[in-house]
């Protein structure tokens, strides 16, 4: 009896805070009895820290609660295993970037195991998803949501201005020029300071993959969109991550995912 799945109406109601709607709502699933959960994972440039524990223990509790209530949960958590910080550390130490990523991924698993965090079902990596990332970028260019610059490919934020601030409430007019960093990069090929990189042309000595726009590597935000699409398709039930990822990362995911999937002018 302990292993039987409870009837749908016997499950205790779960209330969640929907960041996009800015309120607590009843949790419902796309498919009865099944939960598809994608949580943004770490960029493994350094050993794991207390912030990682705070994030992934929290989602572990959600994972366990859902399974205890009889839901069939598929949990995907990614690794951003190529990134500016990883490359910089590898260059400083004179080793390949993969060595930096691998040692910190191993450290992450050791830390989470020590905290008794259950393993996710899948841990996709950016370096394993390059074809899917390139395909998404090609679609965004075709739909005129992205453009090719001198140093890579950029998402054009003004092509879907109604999506700006859906999670954070920020106004598109308030975004400062030169915000830089991981907000959108500082490349010379950008038409607008609000735009963000989808594909970065490689600099000498950087890891690179072939693409229709030249050898390079993905921008930060496109990676999670491609990995979630690979495992779950167009819709899934829970998208989570650290609170600091709401902007720019999760906002950018909304831009590129919805603009890639839906016909221009008809967004969900």
Description:
The chain has 268 residues and is of the alpha/beta class. The chain has one domain (28-261): Rossmann fold, CATH 3.40.50.620. It has 6 helices and 9 strands. The strands form 3 sheets. A 4-stranded antiparallel sheet has the order 5-6-7-8. A hairpin with a 4-residue loop joins β1 (15-18) and β2 (23-26). α4 packs across α6 (246-261). The N and C termini lie far apart (41 Å).
Summed over residues and divided by their number, the pLDDT gives a mean of 87
Number of strands: 9
Our estimate of the beta-strand percent is: 5-15%
- What's the architecture in CATH terms? 3-Layer(aba) Sandwich
- Beginning-to-end CA distance, first to last residue: 41 Å
Structural class of the secondary elements? alpha/beta
The main sheet comes to: 4 strands, antiparallel
Secondary-structure map:
Layout: E1 15-18, E2 23-26, E3 34-39, H1 50-68, E4 72-77, H2 84-93, H3 97-114, H4 130-142, E5 146-149, E6 152-155, E7 196-201, E8 216-218, H5 220-232, E9 238-240, H6 246-261
Helix pairs in contact: 2-3, 4-5, 4-6, 5-6
Concise overview:
With 268 residues, the protein is of the alpha/beta class. The chain has helices spanning 50-68, 84-93, 97-114, 130-142, 220-232, 246-261, and strands at 15-18, 23-26, 34-39, 72-77, 146-149, 152-155, 196-201, 216-218, 238-240. Helices cover 33% and strands 15% of the residues.
